[in-house]
Amino acid sequence: MVKVFPFGLVGAWLARWRSCGAGLAGSALFALALVTTPALAAERPVLLVVGDSLSTAYGFEQEAGWVTLLDERLDGSVRVINASISGETSGGGASRLPELLGQHDPDIVLLELGGNDGLRGLPPTQLKANLAEMIEASQAIGAEVLLLGIDIPPNYGQAYRRAFTDVFSRLAETYDTPLVPFLLEGVALEEGLMQSDGIHPTAEAQPIILDNVWPALEPLLESNGVQLAEVAAE
Asked: Which part of the chain is the SGNH hydrolase-type esterase domain (predicted)?
């Protein structure tokens, strides 16, 4: 934790250093360290995840979720903020995003929404409008956006399913944003990787989900100054 010291206390410490023979140069270096340490800490890029239960470790311990695993892989080089809410729709995310952007001023925004829209049979046009609003708001503050696409069960009908999944690819093209076409690639329908509800992945699936996200996220991290040579080798 970075501590903020009252200027009076700092001055007293400097005076004591001088009386002990530390000298002006040492005092200056000490004062500089107090000023620059918080600044250096604040230079870490901020990554904001706005999603639903697929990003909240639904049904198992938070520590096993893919967002937590991402945070661990980045090892403190990025400040990861998970603002996901179980049950969230694209409309809910769009209404919450302006406050989140103002509060955290992220450099990268991961949008993982749409699953609940699809399960509720909401119009794909509505999903598209909400996600477009979120992309535009994020880009307006200079943040880079990564879209995490999702699919829905075939029983919703091919026409609806196609219109739903097309939303993500069309938005990625329109706004020139990277896209993970299907967040649950290699997970959905796989035995042992989905919970009994058939909707939520298990804890065992979380590393696979992170590996699905990583190739699209890596260039955004690098463009924000994150050194990934050692991380990518893990």
From this structure: 49-205
Which of 77, 117, 197, 211 is catalytic? The answer is 197
Answer yes or no: 200 catalytic. yes
| 197 catalytically annotated | yes
Asked if residue 29 belongs to a domain, the reply is no
* Angle at alpha carbon of residue 226, lines to 223 and 230, rounded to 5°: 125
Strands 108-112 and 79-82: unpaired
In a domain, 211, yes or no: yes
Whether residue 186 is contained in a domain is answered as yes
Q: List the pLDDT tens digit at each of the 234 positions of the chain.
A: 333 333 343 344 334 434 444 444 444 444 444 444 444 455 899 999 999 999 999 999 999 999 999 999 999 999 999 999 999 999 999 999 999 999 999 999 999 999 999 999 999 999 999 999 999 999 999 999 999 999 998 899 999 999 999 999 999 999 999 999 999 999 998 999 999 999 999 999 999 999 999 999 999 999 999 998 655 545
The domain in which residue 144 lies consists of 46-223
Question: 112 — phi, psi (to 5°)?
Answer: -120, 80
Q: pTM to 2 decimals?
A: 0.81
**Catalytic residue check, 104:** no
- Cβ 132 vs Cβ 171: under 8 Å: yes
Assess contact for 55 and 112: CB atoms under 8 A: yes
How many structural domains comprise the chain?
1
Q: Does 123 map to a domain?
A: yes
Instruction: Name the active-site residue from 27, 52, 53, 77.
Output: 53
